[in-house]
Amino acid sequence: MKVTIVDYNSGNISSVINSFEEVAKDKVNIEVTSNLDKIKSSDKLVLPGQGSFKSCVDALNNISGLIDTLNEYIINKKKPLLGICVGLQMFADVGHEEAETKGLGWISGKVSKIDNQNGKYKLPHIGWNQINIVKDSKIFKSIENNSHMYFVHSYEFIPDDKSVIAATTNYSSNIVCSIEKDNIFGTQFHPEKSDTVGLQLIKNFIKL
Amino acid sequence: MLKNRIIPCLDVKNGRVVKGINFVNLKDAGDPVEQAKIYSDGGADEICFLDITASNENRDIIYDVVKRTSKKCFVPLTVGGGIRSVEDINKLLSCGADKVSINTAAVENSKVVIESSKKFGSQCIVVAIDAKKNGDKWEVFTHGGRNNSGIDALDYAKKMEENGAGELLVTSMDKDGTQEGYDIDLMTKIASRVNIPLIASGGVGNLDHLVDGIRYGNASAVLAASIFHYGKYSVKEAKEYLDLKGVPVRI
User: Fold this and answer.
1) Using the beta-carbon criterion (under 8 Å), do B2 and A128 form an inter-chain contact?
2) Where is B169: in which H helix or E strand?
3) Number of compact structural domains in chain A
4) What span, in angstroms and rounded, lies between the C-alpha atoms of A187 and A185?
């Protein structure tokens, strides 16, 4: 089996690579690339993302044919993909960070700034927060409800169809922190930095 | 609910932990990678390395330390000390650091924070403020506390937020090393001035000081070095104590 971490200059992905390699050991081949043929031939994809919504979408667009390849992979081939942080946010139709930016449109919805209630809550939302698992998602296998995950973000994904929500977390409001829709999975938190629980989620994804 | 973070900090010099304690089962107390692993296994919410290597030719050692640590510890890793440029930040991040903490360079060249937060995202840019009281205000010091910039720490904190810092690591130089507790007045004033999280540092001597930093200093996270180094308390003990006192922590 081959799991590919899409390397599209989205910022620092070394922690994502380290965590997948730790879980995979020598049993699963972890590839880090933006090569379209290699992406097409993967069994699973990981779409990381750091920085702003706009900078990540721009970075995807900068690699010729990448978005088409991802669309083909997700919509036609229906193979599994895990989006992490801005990687998940880009599933949306539109993002409002920096400038209004078109997303991948895989899951209808928008990405907006977290309401900090007039400064009552600090932003970014940084640190360990508990997740409330609302859907029996395969990526949460052997993960207890109310487990802690590591977050760092100022924007949240608001999907139109609430049935795609797999988990939420409570900050200034209830924030969507995990998505599952058919073959598309996503986490707003960073499983690669969420200690053993995060590694379990990565293991679950690899084992899908 | 968002939990308050406990961040043990390790001083690293030429790739070795300064004043490391010999934990049971630890093969090499001077190895920062092993120490970091002990902390993360004990429930540390983040690990912080402060590189105090003086000579430039030995600067590359920290990159190797970060690389090896990030393959073993799966909690956030912040690295500070000696960062001069956006390129230095790029190197540390690509070795596996999740955040960098910038001190002197942030004072001397505001572009470093502005450009790096744009390039890598605010989430990985921590500005470290070393502040010392002078009359009724606090001034920002640079170069490991040797030079007084004369800049007002509260105004500076606000400016760093505007420049794109994702967090502030505030150290009271008056309290650092005293074991008398954080400078609560300083922490409260900075926390109320900015809307980004504050990490309190400098002065921890016991576990009540950690409670105070969060409860009265309004810090989102508390950093401590010596109480953990010297084995006075383990990270686990610290978290259990905070939990007992009603401070929300990840257990």
Assistant:
1) yes
2) strand B167-172
3) 1
4) 7
What's the confidence (pLDDT) of residue A203?
97
- Is-catalytic flag, B130? yes
Domains recognised in chain B with CATH numbers = 5-244 (3.20.20.70)
> Would you name the residues of A annotated as active-site residues?
85, 190, 192
Quick one: average pLDDT of B150-179? 96
The identity of residue B243, as a single letter, is D
Query: Which pLDDT score is estimated for B53?
Result: 83
Q: 3-state secondary structure string, A26-80?
A: CCCEEEEECCHHHHHCCCEEEECCCCCHHHHHHHHHHCCCHHHHHHHHHHHCCCC
Mean pLDDT over B177-196 rounds to 96
Q: What is the pLDDT of residue A10?
A: 79
Task: Show which of residues 37-76 on chain B sit within 8 Å of chain A, judged by CB atoms.
Answer: 40, 45, 70-71, 74-76
Is ipTM beyond 0.90? yes
The predicted model gives A84-104 an average pLDDT of 96
- CATH at residue A86: 3.40.50.880
Phi/psi zone of residue B187: left (φ > 0), alpha (ψ -120 to 50 degrees), beta? Answer: alpha
Is B96's CB within 8 Å of A148's CB? no
Amino acid B25: pLDDT: 56
Q: Parallel, antiparallel, or unpaired: how do β-strands B77-80 and B47-51 relate?
A: parallel
Q: Tell me: the pLDDT tens digits for B88-121?
A: 999 999 999 999 999 999 999 999 999 999 888 8
Nearest CA to A18 out of A206, A194, A192, A202 is that of: A192
